[in-house]
Amino acid sequence: MGADLAVQLVARQKAFAVAETLQSGTFVIAADTMVVGPRGPLGKPATSQRAREMLLDLRGRRHTVLTGVCAIHAPCQAQALGLSRSAVKMTEFSDVDLETYVASGEPLDRAGAYAIQGGGGDFVEAVAGRIDTVVGLDVGLALRLLAEVGFPDPLPKATDVPLTPPRPRRPLTPMRAPQRV
What's the number of domains the chain is made of? Predict the structure, then answer.
């Protein structure tokens, strides 16, 4: 099974687990995020050592972030799945910065061992694609999937939802030339 399908199926599994417990007519959104590094899917580190290894594997390189989203009209009357993909280029961060970040505990239980919306954003050089995919929920995709399963209008337009990271210290811009990512 490919990473594209796997991340969508995990999101579906999460959505069904919640939808089965809810009353009829309720809408559920669930998502799952996977980081695919140079050597394949990275998962979430359970230890500081594994977080360190993952970040070293990503340092100075490009990787892909996949976010699978599932919308369900409970109890499972309708469902829709979607996938969002972004490419991320990491900086050549120092060993000292790596150790400081790992010691903060933030990388633990994070896909790919970093949170772009947190301290891990300092390690990101550029994002090609939607930044909310890297955060963990492509808002535009989620809104489209909700509409597909019958969520009543008016749905907000994706452009109405602020998609910038909450910490404006280091703005990210898409790469001008995708081949550089």
Answer: 1
